């Protein structure tokens, strides 16, 4: 007879910070942590109608070092400490003309948002994480880091750098007991990505040709893997990259 695992209070007493947590994948992650008892601060430009009501919102401009450090300071003041950091903030603009059509300022913006925001936020909260009894960092990447998409090569390059940074950080912080892992979403249904996919010559019913499971994933699929990595269930996991993509990169 199988026994269902009760995870309703898995994060009771834990304090979490989720960047880009006001909508999409970030909001789903924040809600998953809240549902299991965590206290959660979400950082974003402004709250939305999908921002989890149980989370505390902190406004932050993660494109700059000062903005990132200010958001971190506000979050730590609210939480009084930190156990879980989810670096989810990210995004990009597609350039269907290919790599040569991407302006220099878009390269700089993507590196700032998709790489440096995570680096700066991590550095800002590391002293507090070192005081936690079960510290965990989860960085959200993208399959663009491993599959060549010329229309968003700037985004993929930044995420590939984030993957390398995460692996190195896992080795560096291992002795401190801080675990660092990556979750790499494939095609997931969010407002931004749904709008982007409308520009592609792939119809909704054709994704089975690219994704072995034959469908677009949901934000809850990502949130569940993040919860595993952030929890004590994942206490011997560090330096790993979970590709939650329905098998797309395998194909």
UniProtKB/TrEMBL annotation:
Domain (Ketoreductase) spans: 14-191
Q: Which GO terms describe its molecular function?
A: oxidoreductase activity
Known PROSITE patterns for this protein? ADH_SHORT (PS00061)
* Keyword Protein biosynthesis annotated: no
Its UniProt entry gives the catalysed reaction(s) as: 2,5-dichlorocyclohexa-2,5-dien-1,4-diol + NAD(+) = 2,5-dichlorohydroquinone + NADH + H(+)
- Superkingdom of origin: Bacteria
One Pfam family named in its UniProt record: adh_short_C2
Per UniProt, which keywords does this protein have?
A: NAD, Oxidoreductase
Q: Name the family the entry cites.
A: Belongs to the short-chain dehydrogenases/reductases (SDR) family.
Name of the molecule in the record: Short-chain dehydrogenase
Q: Which organism is it from?
A: Sphingobium chungbukense
């Amino acid at each position: 007879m199988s026994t269902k695992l009760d995870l309703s209070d898995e994060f009771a007493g834990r304090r979490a910070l989720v960047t880009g947590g006001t909508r999409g994948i970030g909001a789903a992650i924040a809600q998953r942590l809240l549902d299991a008892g965590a206290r959660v601060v979400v950082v974003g430009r402004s709250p939305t109608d999908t921002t989890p009501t149980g989370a505390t919102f902190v406004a932050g401009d993660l494109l700059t070092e000062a903005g990132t450090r200010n958001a971190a300071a506000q979050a730590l003041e609210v939480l009084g400490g930190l156990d879980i950091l989810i670096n989810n903030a990210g995004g990009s603009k597609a350039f269907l003309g290919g790599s040569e059509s991407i302006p220099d300022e878009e390269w700089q913006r993507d590196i700032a948002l998709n790489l440096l925001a995570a680096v700066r936020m991590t550095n800002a909260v590391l002293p507090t994480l070192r005081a936690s009894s079960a510290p965990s960092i989860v960085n959200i990447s993208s399959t663009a880091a491993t599959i060549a998409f010329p229309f968003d090569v700037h985004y993929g390059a930044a995420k590939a750098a984030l993957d390398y940074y995460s692996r190195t950080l896992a080795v560096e912080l291992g002795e401190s007991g801080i675990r660092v892992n990556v979750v790499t979403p494939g095609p997931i249904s969010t407002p931004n990505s749904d709008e982007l996919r409308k520009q592609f010559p792939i119809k909704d019913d054709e994704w089975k040709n690219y994704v072995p499971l034959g469908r677009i994933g949901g934000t809850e699929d990502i949130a569940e893997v993040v919860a595993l990595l952030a929890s004590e269930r994942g206490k011997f996991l560090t330096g790993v990259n979970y590709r939650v993509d329905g098998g797309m990169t395998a194909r």
